[in-house]
Fold each of these.
Amino acid sequence: MITPEESIPTRNTNYRLAEDIFYVQFNEISFFIEDEDQENFFFCILKNLFPDIQIDKIFPLNGKDNVINESNENIGNKKKVFIVDKDFDDILNKINTNDNLFYLDRYSIENHLIEKDAIVEYIIGEKPKLKRADIDNDFDLEAQIQNINNKLNELIHLHLVVQNKCSSLKNVSLNHERFFDFNNGDFTIKSTQIDAYKVQIQNELSNVDGRLTLTSQLNKVKRVININNNELCIKHVPGKYLIKMIKQLIESLFGLVSRNVESFCYRMAENCSFHSLNGLKLSVEEYIN
């Protein structure tokens, strides 16, 4: 069964580009992003990040490749700014260096929502009688991120192998629930699912090149990137995993009603400082001025 949001027809890239032409009279700068389902969310963030720039509309182009292609077509146009997720592009040496193309400093925009104060405010919004000091004492964000990172570490390295060598296999699009149970306030790895994923990867590696082994490819990935602390976790681990798992933890810990992840992200964004986006802000301002 699909949700009401999923039943809304999507607008193709050509429609969005034509829309940009109409909004030239209203936008000082036109911002282009990847995903249509994040349009309202990103609009809220960009309006707060660039309060002195008139932005009436932003333009999702349905995928990173489309954003990069349009960036290529608009080199030198200071009225158009293209923003994409970092994903694993820095790790896999896939960064595009166009002047008008800007990468988030973290895996995705969801990673930039991970702020303790914003989480506390979300909890209070759901349960106004709770005291901030009690929430702060009961929820140790750093400890929870460390726990999540420990649980996700192997899976993330497997995803990196897939993106590097097995492009036909699904990876980060797989939900974390496929690989983890959540009971009594903690995540338990589903070993049978992880093992099945490893077999699938090894089979695909053998199809690509009979000399490749999963063990050797994992070792290569770990030499390139070792996600061994919270800072690296927040930077490199897919934000949809982190945000969904943090959401599950606080709903369990504080007895909150379970909201859909889109509503959760939007509410979080309303209370984020987004200091982690200062690098993006400065780079864009330097480009357009």
Amino acid sequence: MRIKSMGWGLCLMLAATGAQAAWQIEPGTSHAQAEVTHDSRTDMVTLDRLGGTITDEGQLTVPLQYNQLDIVRNANIPTWLKDKTNQRMATLETTIDPDWLNDLNIGETAHHRIALETKDQRYTTRDHVPITITRNDRTHYRVTTSEPVEIKAQSLMEEPNAQLIMSLLGYRSLGDVIPLSLDATLSQQ
């Protein structure tokens, strides 16, 4: 009987640890910068509080919401539209080889290319993005894009509520692409 209960306890423990993320993106130190061109000028827009996880298998998921944009948080958005800014704008997904992180020594940097998918209700785009990974200490890593990711403005504006939110913020027409640079801190769980 004791062996049976130990077996169940071991199974529950393994199941619980399998559900956790191996790495967590720290929202307090993770952000992205975008260059938004509109009406013959370019604005730098920041996406703050990036969060997400990387599983033991290397599956990275980063949900993005409108309210993470500094221009949305700093704007005088009508009350009836506030709930819309909490909606998911897109989800970034990719697979990262866990050995890329595990094999780095403290202070070392590695460069890789990933297939990054941007998904939402209406579209999925795939871009190959060069990234730089630096191991800061035993449990923390810095991940940056080596060059900006180009987001198609037309695809973004097809998202539910995007045109309404952007026009209320003063963006009437956008350039063809929005270059986006990522700077994230990962902590090993």
Amino acid sequence: MVSLKLLIVVALVATVACTPHLRVHHGKHHGKRVGITISAGIGDIFKGLNPSPRVCDSQALNSLLRPKRPKNFNDVLTLLIHLTQGVGGIMDKHYEGMGSLSTRMVIALARISVCQLGAKKFHSKPHFCSRDFHQFGVKGSVQTVDAVYARFKVNKATEQVNILINKYTNNKGIGSVNGTVRVYFRFCLNLAALLDSKYYSLKYFKKMF
């Protein structure tokens, strides 16, 4: 059974990912304001939840347990990725495979939007663009959008999500679940649709978060 804490975390991620006014700017003032909004209380929420290390590594978990208020775009991006890893790691304990997939989809979208399409907008690429994700077998940066899809295994993302949803609902589909699980499954489907449509850009990524 999924806990109330997890419901709060999933709702937080879904809200942040779907709220247009939470735009990330390069200015220190905006970064601090967004950081206060999304970092408050995260440490208390994640205490005792123990996300799976298959998805959430120790660096991400330590960041969530002792969050610092982001001061710039790089800090906000790092927090969002760690938050996604935390939620994915928890959900993967209940729905193995889905937590990993949802996390890989978010990271892939960020790598494409920020590191590929938005590369010219930065004085230097964020550390996120070249960091390793050993739990997913990904090391370093990649040079093309297609390579991001391949490395993070997010080709035909909607098909992958639906296979897992059918697996955990006995082929009854998303309409057969409610509450936290439905919010999370819908969040995964929305991410998958975005990847499959290839409708992304740095501007759109900022609007998402």
